[in-house]
Amino acid sequence: MLTEAPSRRDIRKLKLAELQQFFVEHGDKPFRAQQVHEWLWKKSAKDFEQMTNLSLTTRELLNAHFTINHILVDTMQQSADGTIKNAVKLHDGLIVESVLIPTEKRITACVSSQVGCSLACKFCATARLKRMRNLNPDEIYDQVAAIKQQSELFFSRPLTNIVFMGMGEPLLNYNNVMAAIEKITSPHGLNMAAKRLTVSTVGIAKMIVKMADDEVKFNLAVSLHSALNATRSSIMPINDTNSLEELGEALKYWYSKRKKKVTYEYVVWEGINDKATDAQALLKFCKIIPCKVNLIEYNPIDDGEFRQASDDALLMYQHLLESNGITTRIRKSRGKDIDAACGQLANKT
Predict the structure, then answer these.
(1) How many angstroms separate the CA atoms of 298 and 303, rounded?
(2) Which of 3, 76, 216, 287 is most buried per CB count within 10 Å?
(3) CB atoms within 10 A of CB 292
(4) Taking the domain 96-338, which CATH number applies?
């Protein structure tokens, strides 16, 4: 009678100690685990055959027991401005998108943390997708590793920055995002400096407090878009359960623990938040803790409900904020022609 072969485990779900135990149980030396760990997290190996300092017997042993559920860059699109958008296929066939954003001084990886999103922000294409699942730490890490490789291949420059501003809400996948960041910043991983990482959130107050308590080293950005509760709730339903007052208290706690400025991401739309009263409310909110503001160009998502405010409105915001000592910049989006700009990631491929 034939017995079914046992399914292979995803090796990247094992801790180093578990991998050491595996080798001891199979009559090998524990240090083999360190070699494999380096291939997985420092060299971003996609299969066991790449692990050339291991014997053929050892590679066959690994292949018999484990698999590497590596992502696949299924489709790559390049914008006229050099931006690259990747449609990333996961091991179960689901798709997320990640973006390489090149500028003169830096190359930034914008990565996703969830398949879809559950927060229903009305101006965001990703919010129109059903949230299907959280990404695993290795799937987040793989997006960064792929963009790092593309940066070196297409631009002959190193990856300098990482932003968690792709599909999904990072703080609703907190443990996996933190585990991925540990691998990305570890000297035994990609060795990226934590100060080069930014996690962006819609403003989930209790999770901002948790990040402060966990003494994270990366930067925090908040997708704000209005400092008036009624306006913010009308475009971001999360504000109904995480009001601006609660968010402000969480940010005060963040700053008391971390002493790090927060960045407010803010789109100005015609007829929604383009009046002087909107700008005054933002200025008041900015005085809660030290901060800076990115006024972001809006990227349409087809239906015309939201329209970019006039240049005069943007300049009104910028003048008011800067005259009160708030660092402010108007940020032009990149990759719009391939739907790779802020708010446009929607798996159209």
Answers:
(1) 13
(2) 216
(3) 15
(4) 3.20.20.70
CATH of domain 9-67: 1.10.150.530
The reported pLDDT for the residue numbered 61 is 97
Is 342 assigned a catalytic role?
A: yes
CB neighbour class for 266 (10 Å; exposed up to 12, middle 13-18, buried from 19): buried
Annotated catalytic residue: which of 25, 97, 104, 305? 97
Task: Tell me which of 64-68, 76-80, 250-254, 326-330 is least confident.
Answer: 76-80
**CA-to-CA dists, residue 210 to 49, 199, 247, 254, angstroms:** 41, 14, 13, 9
Q: 291 an active-site residue?
A: no
Between residues 39 and 336, the one the model is more confident about: 39
Residue 18: the pLDDT is: 97
Tally helices (H) and strands (E) across the chain.
10, 14
Q: Catalytic one among 110, 124, 291, 342?
A: 342
Domain chopping of the chain, boundaries: 9-67, 96-338
